Task: structure prediction
Amino acid sequence: MKYTELTEKELDEVVKKYIEYYNTVEDCCFTYEKAYKRIHQVMTIEDAMCQIQYDDNGSMTGFCMGYYKQFDDLLAYFLEEIVIFTGFHNIGYGSDFIAEIEDVVKKNGAEHLELISVNDAHHMHFYEKAGFYAAKNLSMMGKHWQL
Ligand SMILES: CC(C)(COP(=O)(O)OP(=O)(O)OC[C@H]1O[C@@H](n2cnc3c(N)ncnc32)[C@H](O)[C@@H]1OP(=O)(O)O)[C@@H](O)C(=O)NCCC(=O)NCCS
Result:
């Protein structure tokens, strides 16, 4: 596998593949503008670290986006999202990507890797396999309303 930094140059292709996955597999309703905005927002956060994955045939097979977060006692990396594109699931690409992210952020001084996961058997298996655990001292909170 090959990994490169996500830049504005690859953004159009990433956005299209992102939409292709979410709007067909997960029944989402991304427009190009919304998907572009979502990814671009994270890319432009201070200390962002976003990468693209290519397989050995040169196909773009996934991307990740996130950023380093400074705490009092350590530097962490928050993985906002990892997506393996349509046609490349369940063949180890996601696991390879997580290992690569861990390598890169360790080299850059981060001692902690965190994310918010979908709470289902698939995601739990995927992240636990990579050594992640569910935080016991934190709870995801939200509030929602109709406009
Ligand atoms: C989550 C995701 C990144 C995993 O990538 P991937 O390349 O398919 O991951 P891998 O092939 O390395 O591993 C997938 C594992 O899940 C397992 N799996 C697949 N479907 C499953 C299910 N329904 N229940 C339990 N395990 C499941 C696979 O068998 C494999 O485990 P194994 O290696 O022990 O056999 C990918 O599915 C994805 O991009 N999903 C859409 C975006 C997303 O949800 N991102 C994460 C946001 S929190």
About this structure: Residues 2-129 form a domain with the Aminopeptidase fold (CATH 3.40.630.30). Strands lie at 2-5, 51-54, 60-70, 75-84, 112-114. The pocket of coenzyme A is lined by residues 81-84, 89-95, 117-118, 121-123, 125-126, 129 (CB under 6 Å).
